């Protein structure tokens, strides 16, 4: 026995499905936003723990707070994260810094930095991500990276001399940075990554801030010495693996030998 379609039934069904997808999409967006805010809060807490609560004396914290403000993190949440990290509030930070080394698909070296209050939970979860399927494997690889200071910034003058800025700021090297490489760099401004000694991050950040640059990242990180050749398919597979790592709540930074 066949049913008789009522006029507009298909449209109604399509409308319901559309609303269901819209709700699902909003849920995904809200989840991602929550993860982003959580990582920003953790970054501010760690930055304050390592360098103190004074934004003007702690370049990493200043950059983290600016990112949090752009992400509409409330002032109360920002202040609570800083107080927790600096130990000036009732709730002191118990975050532990853990570094994992391994390889993405196609033998791409990866270093993962995590901040966790439960190492016994986080370590097995991250190792499981490396073991999953054929995605990657753990193993020592720090010798494939330079451990350096990294300051990323942009300037209103698109023709600014990046090399001169690097020399005067006291950086060891620099490279141009675009909005496509870091979406904190506005499309109409000159972006640059300044590579420094680990001990010089704050001094370089301070000089840049005083000379017309807006600092968006100020941290100690890892730069690959060489980059494996990848075709588009391999690059996509590596990208999926790296995204899976970054989606983990405890992972704060993923450094990979991918351009």
How many extended strands?
8
Contiguous runs where pLDDT drops below 50 for at least 5 residues: 1-33
* Oligomeric state of the chains in view: single chain
Q: What is the CATH first-level class name of the largest domain?
A: Alpha Beta
| CATH superfamily membership of the largest domain | YebC, transcriptional regulation domain
Structure notes:
The protein folds into 2 domains: 8-90, Orthogonal Bundle (Arc Repressor Mutant, subunit A); 94-259, YebC, transcriptional regulation domain (Alpha-Beta Plaits). The longest helix is centred in the N-terminal third of the chain and has 43 residues, at 9-51. The chain is α+β, with helices and mostly antiparallel strands and 259 residues long. The model is unreliable at 1-33 (pLDDT under 50). The protein has 7 helices and 8 strands. Strands 3-1-2-8 form a 4-stranded antiparallel sheet. It has a 4-stranded antiparallel sheet with strand order 5-6-4-7.
């Amino acid at each position: 026995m066949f049913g008789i379609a009522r006029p507009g039934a298909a449209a109604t069904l399509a409308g319901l499905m559309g609303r269901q997808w819209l709700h699902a999409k909003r849920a995904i967006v809200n989840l991602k936003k929550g993860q982003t805010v959580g990582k920003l809060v953790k970054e501010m807490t760690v930055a304050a723990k390592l360098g103190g609560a004074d934004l003007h004396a702690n370049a990493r914290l200043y950059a983290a707070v600016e990112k949090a403000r752009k992400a509409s993190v409330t002032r109360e949440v920002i202040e609570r994260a800083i107080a927790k990290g600096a130990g000036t509030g009732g709730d002191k930070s118990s975050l532990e810094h853990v570094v994992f080394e391994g390889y993405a698909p196609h033998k791409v070296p990866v270093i993962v930095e995590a901040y966790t209050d439960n190492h016994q939970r986080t370590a097995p979860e991250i190792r499981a991500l490396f073991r999953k399927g054929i995605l990657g494997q753990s193993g020592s690889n720090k010798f494939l990276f330079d451990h350096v200071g990294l300051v990323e910034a942009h300037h209103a003058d698109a023709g600014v001399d990046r090399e001169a800025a690097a020399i005067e700021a006291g950086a060891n090297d620099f490279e141009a940075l675009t909005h496509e490489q870091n979406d904190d760099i506005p499309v109409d401004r000159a972006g640059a990554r300044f590579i420094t000694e680990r001990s010089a991050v704050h001094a370089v950040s301070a000089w840049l801030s005083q000379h017309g640059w807006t600092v968006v990242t100020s941290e100690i990180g890892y730069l690959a010495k060489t980059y494996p050749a990848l075709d588009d398919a391999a690059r996509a597979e590596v990208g999926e693996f790296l995204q899976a790592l970054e989606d983990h709540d405890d992972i704060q930074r993923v450094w990979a030998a991918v351009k």
